[in-house]
Structures are given as C-alpha cells and as structure tokens.
Amino acid sequence: MGATGDGQGRPARSVRGLLEPALLAVTATALLSGGIAWAAGSRGVADACWAAGTVLAVVPAVAWVLAAVRKGRAGVDLIAVLALAGTLAVGEYLAGALIALMLATGRALDAAAERRASHDLRALLEHAPRSARRRTGREVAVIPLADVVVGDVLVVGPGDVVPVDGTVLTGTAELDESVLTGESAQVERGTGEPVRSGVVNAGGVFELRATATAQDSTYAEIVRLAQHAGAERAPTVRLAERYAAWFLPLSLGLAALAWLLSGSAVRAVAVLVVATPCPLLLAAPVAVVSGLSRAARRGVIVRDGGALERLGRARTLVIDKTGTLTVGRPHVLAVAAAPARSPSEVLRLAASLDQVSAHVLAEAIVREARARGLALSMPADATEEPGRGPAGTVDGLRVGVGKSGVPQEALPDWAHAVDNRAVLDGAAIAWLTVDDALAGAVLLQDPLRHDAPRTVRRLRSAGLTRLLMLTGDRAEPAREVGAVLGLDDVRAGQLPADKVAAVQEERARAVTVMVGDGVNDAPALAAADVGVAMGARGSTATSEAADIVLTTDRVDRLADAMEIAVRARRIAVQSAAGGMAMSLLAMIAALLGWLPPAVGALLQEGIDVAVILNALRALLPARGTRTALEPDAEDLIHRFAAEHDDLRDSLDAIREAAGLLSAQDAPGSLAAVRHVDHLLTTRLLPHEYAEEHKLYPALNKQLGGPETTETMSRAHTEIARLSRRITTHLRMADETGTLKPEQLDDLRACLYGLHSVLRLHFSQEEESYFSLAP
C-alpha cells in the first residue's frame, strides 16, 4: 500500500475519495478497450489504449511516492512507478496497463480500509456550559462563562452543569460526577468542599464560590488533554510499509543485476513487472477489509484498516471499570434485617419510600423490590434532605432511607456485621430506620458483567499479555473486580489526566488498547494506539475519540474484535509473504530471461488472484468458532437467567439463617431455617432440576457434548445433598421441638456451604452459559 495520507486534512481526503475510484474505472476501461481492439486486429489502437491507461496511472502514482518520501517513507508504490515507466520506455504497453489496473485496485481497496472518522471532540464542547448565574447581593444575573472570575458567587440549579471549579458556599451539593470519573454513584459535597467543573447537580440549588476561571478549570483541561493526546499519537507503520523496507531494495537490486548481466533494459523491466508488489498492495487491504466486514457483523465498527492492524498487534489492554467491566448502575447486593424483621419487609419499606426519590441508589432499590414481586405502598408526607435521603410515612410507620445517623460505636451487632460486609464487598449502604430506630440495611454494588470473566480469558488467548484496569472509583470495589478477573494491575481514584499518563506509559512498552465508555475516558482513548468505546451506552465524545466502537452493550464484543483482528492480520501476513515468495521466484525467472514483461504481468495477475482468494478467508469464521445459539437454547437461557434474578432473595435468606444460628439463643433461628427449607423445596431445587433436565441437554447439543456441563451437574448434586442435610436437621428438631446444641455447628456449616456453592454455581452459569445469549 502506498502513501495513505494519514496526516492530510479533510479536503485532501475528499479529493482522494474521488480520485481513486476514478483511476480504477479509467485503468479498467483502458485495459478492456485495448483488449477489444487487439482482438479486432487493431494492434496500434490496442497499444494506444494500454499506453494511455499506463500514463494515467503514472501521474497519481508519482504523487503518492513523493508524498511518502516527504513523510520519510519510501512506499512500495515506488516499484510500481518504475515498472510503469519502464513498460512505457521499452514499449511493453500491455504489461503497463495490467500494472496500472493492479495499482488502482490496490489503492481503492486501501481507501476502503481507511475510512477514518474525525476525532473531534464536539460532544465534549457541547456538554460544556456557556453561561453562569452570578449572585451579587440579592440579585442573580446570567453572564457569559468567560466573565466568571475567581471569588464570584455562582448559583447552580438542579440539573445544571457546574461551570467552573469552586467550593460549596452553603448547604450540601449532591453531584453526578460520572462525566469526570465514569462512576454512576452520586457524591455529596458539604460546605467548603471542592467541586470540579463539568459535574452535574443531581440535588437542589446550591451556591458555589469560584476558585478558577473557565479556562483554568477541570473540564477545559479535559478538552485540552484529549486534543493534545490525539495530536501527539504517532502514526503507526502499516503492514505493507514494514515489508517494503526489504522488498523494495531487493527488487531494485535484482532489476539492476538483470540489466547488468544481460545488457537488456527489457529484461530489467520484466523483473520490475513481476516485482510489482501486488501481494502487498492487494493482500493486506483485502484481508483487512474482510476483517472490517466481519467485525461489523458482530456489532464492532472499526474506523479504518490501520486500527484493525494495530489491534491485531496489541499486547496491552487498559480498561475502565464502570460501564465496561461492570454493568454501570448499582444493583442490590444483599438486604440485612434487624432482629424480629425480615429482609423482604426491610426491602419493601425502603422501596416504598424510595419511589419518591430520584437518587440512583433509590432507583436500584425500587427496581429490586419490584423484581421480587413485593407490593409497595405509597408514602405520605415524604421529604428529602440532600445528603440524608428521603423520609416519610409508610403504612403508618415513620420511615427513613439513607445515612444511619447513628455513631459507629453505637451501632448494634447486626449493623456492625452489615458495615463490615460493605467494606469487604466494596458496597454502598442504604440504612432503613423505622420510628427513628435502625431496622435494616440494603447493600448496593455495581455488579460485574456476566460476560467479563470469559472476555478476559479470550483476550489473553488472543495475545494480550498485560491487562490493566483504571477507574475513578474507590480502591475496595476496584480491587474486588481486579481479583475476580485476574487482572495484572488495578489503579483506583484515577482522573482523566492520570488515565492519559497511564496509557502513555503502557504505550512505551507495547501496542496498547484503551477501552472506556465515559466522557472522562475520551482523552485516554485518543492517547492509546487503539481506542475502543462502548458506544451502546457510552458518550458521544468517547465514540468520536475512539478507533473502534462496540455498538452493542456487551464487552465480549471486544474479544470478538481482538480475535477477528489477529486472524485478519495473520491472513494478511500469510498472503503477503506467500505472494512475495511467488513474486521472488518470478523475478528470478525474469532475470534469467524466461519471462518477457507481458507474460510476467499476466503471471503476476495470477499471483494476485491466489493472494486475494486467500485473503478473503478473513470473511469467514475461524475454524472451531462456536456457532450461534439455536432459538430454543436461547429461550431457555433467558428463562433461567431471569430465575437467577428472582432467586437472589433466597440466597439472602440462607445467609441470614446461618447468621442467626451463630447466637444459640437468637429468636427466630429455627423459624428462619424452616423458611430456608421451604424456599429450597419450592423454588431452588425445582430450578436446579429444570436446569439439569432442560437447559443442560440443550447446551450439550449446542456446545458439542455432555462434557461441557458435567462440572455444573456435579454442583447440582452438591446443592441437593446439602438441602437434604438441612431437611434432616429439621426432622431431628421436630422430635424435640428445638435445635439441639450438637446440631448447630453442622447446620450452620450446611447453610454457609450451601450459600457459597449457590453463589459460585450461579456465577459460573452466568459467565459460561448465560453470557452466550444476547
């Protein structure tokens, strides 16, 4: 492939978009017209047509070579120019016309593989505010953003984007910082605490004292970072150019040797004709375009062929957490209840009150309660204080959801256990108070995507050797995700500038891919060798700063893209290397005088056909690729995935019953175990039985045999064994009316063991099977 114009502006790309198809049409017409004239016996007309096609190809080819030389590269087009000029000089016009058509075809294919979208940051600029409300005394006036000076008092209303960096002047500011950090959770800033520009006011009106002008604020710095990172990214040497580094001097040397040994310029031209780098000009673009087409069918839009080539050589992956490896919105992890209350009651009361709240955690709590089929009541006298959460009356009870308001040292034992679990699991806590007393808690967490673990394994299999996660989140949840996925490094609390620095550091070691979905990721995506945006829910700015966009909200499409890129590049290399080997043999034959230029050009076209046919294999799935799920298997996966969601409360009940047994005199422990036994009998065991006899046979048929689900079947056996053991304990308790002390240790072990096995089993099924279906 010749000079591609990577550094050209839009007008140059537009001219190229018109020139190359026109050149292909003209050279094809010239070759065909000459062929018709030759068949009609008009040899002079045929030569004139072929010569015209050759001349028309020489002019742009010389321009391409000069453009490459100006950039410090001598592209493979130089051989084509010399061959074209040589055929004109020695009168081998048919050979020239054939080379012209080959050159035009290669350029057209290369252009098709290089439709690169603009990397402008329009969405970043559109998000930025252009005015601010400044309060002077009792008057509030709207002023241009550029007029804000340090010390101004600004009024920020609900839903407003904070215009400049500042500190909260009065009250509490509840902010959505996802634009800067990528994290879905909202944060609170009290009086005197700093607030960065670009974040969104998710609460009530608050006042801000400006500590920087718009130009010196955080959001403006993000825009500059993205622009600078994109400008600093060095162009990557393409596949054809790397091969040209040795093929070009070899070809010229053999042509010179042929002339020297034979004294015939025709023989030297014959060497150049068969040396014309068809495999490089055709094989790589065809394989890459085929890879682009296959990627598009998998919901992966690759901006240009260069991005696909770089992805195929990547060895390091830098990935954001929230919305990429995780779902991107909080889900209920567990519900804890105070003694004498049940988790279902706690969740119902919390969700009933949270119906009137717009908080992201409240939305998750309401969604979970409705998924569990709980009947919610409409609250009365509901109020919501920023930073504290909603309060109101539900079914005659005074209920509050949010911060506990109880000092750490005054928390009851069960609440201490909740607090400890939140730290261990990296979860947020929404405390429930009833009549001003702690009654329960809801733990919330941004869960890992079901397809994330399998995606990480596939990425490593595709050739990535280092996986690094960057996140603006806290260290605890970040480390939890990193441990589950087996990542090589995890860095928490990362700002956009930190992410750019990390990407540049990794780029110094190896070809680096950056994956993200938020505006805060745009600078890092622009700085990476290959930027990948989760475009289904990601920001427009992120998509525009990326080389690859995943159009579906599935991170496993990244693994698809990596595998397609690696295979397309491997096929391109095979085709180019094989084609050049055949060309080298033809060059030796031409050097010895066995191939005249016209015959050499026809032979080169035969090599082209072989190379193209091999390169087109990139359109096909790789051998051993898993076929798409049949409709009945997909329906079963959706059914059992939904049942997993419905059974989360059963897992909570098992854990709670085990906890109650830790205190032998805990009231309700026997009743809790009976409740667990009822859940096992009526819900969990029927679910596992149906999986064993309906889902697994369908998957075995789809995935190639029963060995694919054998270990999961063994888990079903263990779940049934522990369930029978719990039932046996209850029968023993029925004989005496209570649980005997000697039963407690084994029963508690059964409950905790069952909870652990079920959690692991659910996770394995969701990762290995449920992630197969869209």
Automatic annotation (TrEMBL):
<feature type="transmembrane region" description="Helical">
    <location>
        <begin position="571"/>
        <end position="595"/>
    </location>
</feature>
<keyword id="KW-0547">Nucleotide-binding</keyword>
<dbReference type="Pfam" id="PF01814">
    <property type="entry name" value="Hemerythrin"/>
</dbReference>
<dbReference type="InterPro" id="IPR027256">
    <property type="entry name" value="P-typ_ATPase_IB"/>
</dbReference>
<feature type="domain" description="P-type ATPase A">
    <location>
        <begin position="127"/>
        <end position="227"/>
    </location>
</feature>
<dbReference type="InterPro" id="IPR051014">
    <property type="entry name" value="Cation_Transport_ATPase_IB"/>
</dbReference>
<feature type="domain" description="Hemerythrin-like">
    <location>
        <begin position="636"/>
        <end position="772"/>
    </location>
</feature>
<feature type="transmembrane region" description="Helical">
    <location>
        <begin position="22"/>
        <end position="41"/>
    </location>
</feature>
<dbReference type="InterPro" id="IPR023299">
    <property type="entry name" value="ATPase_P-typ_cyto_dom_N"/>
</dbReference>
<feature type="transmembrane region" description="Helical">
    <location>
        <begin position="268"/>
        <end position="289"/>
    </location>
</feature>
<keyword id="KW-0067">ATP-binding</keyword>
<keyword id="KW-0472">Membrane</keyword>
<dbReference type="Pfam" id="PF00702">
    <property type="entry name" value="Hydrolase"/>
</dbReference>
<dbReference type="InterPro" id="IPR018303">
    <property type="entry name" value="ATPase_P-typ_P_site"/>
</dbReference>
<keyword id="KW-1003">Cell membrane</keyword>
<dbReference type="InterPro" id="IPR012312">
    <property type="entry name" value="Hemerythrin-like"/>
</dbReference>
<keyword id="KW-1133">Transmembrane helix</keyword>
<feature type="transmembrane region" description="Helical">
    <location>
        <begin position="79"/>
        <end position="106"/>
    </location>
</feature>
<feature type="transmembrane region" description="Helical">
    <location>
        <begin position="243"/>
        <end position="262"/>
    </location>
</feature>
<dbReference type="InterPro" id="IPR023298">
    <property type="entry name" value="ATPase_P-typ_TM_dom_sf"/>
</dbReference>
<comment type="similarity">
    <text>Belongs to the cation transport ATPase (P-type) (TC 3.A.3) family. Type IB subfamily.</text>
</comment>
<dbReference type="InterPro" id="IPR059000">
    <property type="entry name" value="ATPase_P-type_domA"/>
</dbReference>
<dbReference type="InterPro" id="IPR008250">
    <property type="entry name" value="ATPase_P-typ_transduc_dom_A_sf"/>
</dbReference>
<dbReference type="InterPro" id="IPR036412">
    <property type="entry name" value="HAD-like_sf"/>
</dbReference>
<dbReference type="Pfam" id="PF00122">
    <property type="entry name" value="E1-E2_ATPase"/>
</dbReference>
<keyword id="KW-0812">Transmembrane</keyword>
<dbReference type="InterPro" id="IPR001757">
    <property type="entry name" value="P_typ_ATPase"/>
</dbReference>
<protein>
    <submittedName>
        <fullName>Heavy metal translocating P-type ATPase</fullName>
    </submittedName>
</protein>
<dbReference type="InterPro" id="IPR023214">
    <property type="entry name" value="HAD_sf"/>
</dbReference>
<feature type="transmembrane region" description="Helical">
    <location>
        <begin position="48"/>
        <end position="67"/>
    </location>
</feature>
<keyword id="KW-0479">Metal-binding</keyword>
